Amino acid sequence: MIGLDTNVLVRYLTQDDQAQARKVDAVIADSVARGERCVIDPIVLCELIWVLRDAYRTPKADLVKTLDQILATQQFQITEKDRVREASEAYRVGRADFADYLIGTSNRDAGCSETATFDRRLRGASAFRVLLLVVLLAVGAAACSGGGTPAAPTPPPTTTPPATPTPQAPPFSGTIFIDADIITAEDPTTFASLTPNGQGMRTMYDRRAAAFIQLQAYLFNVTFSDGLSTEVQVNPEFGSTDAARVQAEKYAIVIGRLPRALRVSVATVWIHQGVQPFGGGNNNLLIHVGQGDLYIADGVLEETFVHEAAHTSLDAAHAASAGWLSAQAKDVNFISTYARDNPTREDVAESVLPWLAVRYRASRITPALAATIQQFIPNRMAYFDSLGLVMLPVQ
User: Fold this and answer.
1) Rounded CA separation 238/268 (Å)
2) Could you tell me the pLDDT band of residue 55, with boundaries at 50, 70 and 90?
3) Where are the alpha helices (DSSP H) in 94-223?
4) What is 282-323 written as a DSSP string?
5) Mean pLDDT score, 174-190
6) Rounded to whole angstroms, how far apart are CA atoms 125 and 349?
7) What torsion, rounded to 10 degrees, do the Cα atoms 379, 383, 388, 390 define?
């Protein structure tokens, strides 16, 4: 009997490398001919789902079908099959990753009454307890910069703010972590196409160097279904057009989930390796993919882009405007310490995600969170309401 590693299973399922696929087919056929089965460990299945989702852009519905097919294939012996099947069923209907549900079932079978997690995608899932924080992780102070222009109308409901609020400490350190469900990977995207455009010299900011640098970047033209477009510039350190394209498409799809009002001034996207904060402004979004993986693990990649794209498309017209400064003064308080400590640079970007959550995602956040947001920034909420921002595909 033999076991299968993740890369072997990927080749078997995708058949995208014919030489390797033939070897895998032969190994499995030989095992079957001997009356033996191939062992697949649950860890391999977790890795398989990550690879198919992130590298092959496989939709969740197809990932669930793949798990079903593997579980039903007679020549495969799945370690802890009942546990895997239960996790697969939870993944089918849930918001979190397959691996999360497998952790929950494994811990339960080990005698745990529940699994404690900060992953808010697991709210309501059996065997999990989501830990809620009043003060959450701060966004790095060096993460952002301003720039851009606003978008146009279709107003949501307005608020009538209360008078004379009492000064209070901000409820959050930074707002990108207030809820992981505000925009998710299951939400629609306006991403339409990505076209390679060779390589060209571009000036790109790299946080690892803390400087603008000139690179012979891989270039991709991205279009969105609402008529917007952007050029994605990928650091040549990724080594090939194919590798660069994987990153460009991965992030273009996510950016397409943002409201049009936040994408309207995004002319370029810079993508580098490294674990450095994202950035916005200068008609650009800055991405370091190592940090992107951390945001994905926390379920807040889209929320982070909302913050950064607000720098790009809202700050220039609003951060120092009379209307915004008046709302800021009337509110007295700030939604986060990051906004309070950087009132000109960060307040718009820190406030727009909470506004979006209350106005467009009320069913996904707790009543307590909605009440906190409206208590602390009612006049800023009314200001955003008055702009008539085009929010599609967020509805």
Assistant:
1) 18
2) confident
3) 98-109
4) TTEEEEEHHHHHHHHHHT-HHHHHHHHHHHHHTHHHHTT-HH
5) 93
6) 31
7) -90
Judged by DSSP in three states, 269 sits in strand
Q: Which of 384, 263, 382, 255 is nearest to 318 (CA)?
A: 384
Instruction: Report the alpha-carbon distance of residue 80 to residue 40 in Å, rounded.
Output: 10
Strand partners, 101: none
Distance CA 274, CA 289 (A): 6
Q: Does residue 253 contact residue 287 with C-beta atoms inside 8 Å? A: no
Residues 6+ apart with CB under 8 A from 157: 359, 385
Q: Which two tokens stand for residue 34?
A: 């001997």
Share of the chain above pLDDT 90, in %: 77
Structure-token pair, residue 351 = 């406030």
Using alpha carbons only, what angle is made at residue 212 by residues 208 and 214, rounded to the nearest 5 degrees?
105
- The single-letter code of the amino acid at 33 is A
Q: Are 339 and 292 in contact (CB under 8 A)?
A: no
pLDDT tens for 77-135 read 999 999 999 999 999 988 788 999 999 999 999 999 999 988 777 877 888 887 754 43
Side chain identity, residue 20: Q
Order of all β-strands in the sheet with 38-40: 2-3, 38-40, 76-78
Average pLDDT of the chain, as a whole number: 89
Q: How far is CA 65 from CA 49, 88, 217, in A?
A: 11, 10, 37
Residue 316 contacts residue 147 (beta carbons within 8 Å) = yes
Contacts 24+ apart (CB under 8 A), 20-28: 27/2, 28/75
- Region 48-58: mean pLDDT is 85
Q: What is the dihedral of CA 18, 23, 29, 34, to 10 degrees?
A: 180
Amino acid at 350: E
Nearest-CA neighbor of 265 among 280, 252, 250, 254?
280
Euclidean distance between CA atoms 290 and 242, whole angstroms: 18
8 Å CB contact between 143 and 277: yes
What phi, psi does 202 have (nearest 5°)?
-135, 150
Tens-place pLDDT, residues 352-387: 999 999 999 999 999 999 999 999 999 999 999 999
**Residue 188, pLDDT score:** 95
Other CB atoms within a 10 A radius of the CB of residue 32 amount to 13
